[in-house]
Amino acid sequence: MKSIKKKVVGFLSLIFLTQPLAAGAAEIADVKFEKQYPAPENDLELKGVGLLRYLGMFKVYAGAFYLEEGAPINEALADRAKRIEVEYLRSFKGEEFGPATVEMMKKNVDKATIERLRQQIDHHNSLYEDVGPGDRYALTYIPGRGTELALNGEPKGVVEGAEFATALFSIWIGQEPIDESFKRQIMGL
What percent of the residues of the chain are helix, what percent strand, and what percent coil, each to the nearest 5? Predict the structure, then answer.
């Protein structure tokens, strides 16, 4: 009886976490995300939260996706303000982020675009530092300003360009995301 109860609770939790969020902040894997993020022109609203697992078993990170208020989710990769926050549940070396970023971009962006963005990609990848459980990276794109990378709320740098932002955010919400289940969760689908 206990295992059936656990399965029902787990199933209901999954339904809740994959539905668009109405009011209030969200929590997943003991990680909390605010319901809004203040942006210069238009606040960003939380669309969903998710948990990325490696091999379906190991928890890697919890994440949240924000999009400017009123923007339809199907325009998430358009030139609109957006943000993704990722809180790590495991440790990673800063130098591991660059190669992984490029490989995931290549799944969503053609080779010519990657080459055109090479300088921006290299600059962005040079900003990464080692992380451990509880550390949080955030990527915030503001049209006309660029994409800011921040670690635990401390800005590391900004990379200009809407095309770069689209390539970068495609890692999580593109046609070939890092994980389809994670994409659906953070987009509230």
Answer: 35, 30, 35
With a CB cutoff of 8 Å and minimum separation 6, the contacts of 72 are none
Q: Which of 81, 79, 54 is nearest to 65 (CA)?
A: 81
DSSP alpha helix (H) spans, the chain = 2-18, 94-106, 111-116, 118-126, 162-173, 180-186
Range of the domain at 180: 2-186
**pLDDT tens digits, 131-143:** 999 999 999 999 9
CA proximity to 31, closest of 103, 164, 165, 135: 135
DSSP 82: E
Global model pTM greater than 0.90: no
How many structural domains comprise the chain? 1
Domain of 80, CATH number, reads 3.50.70.10
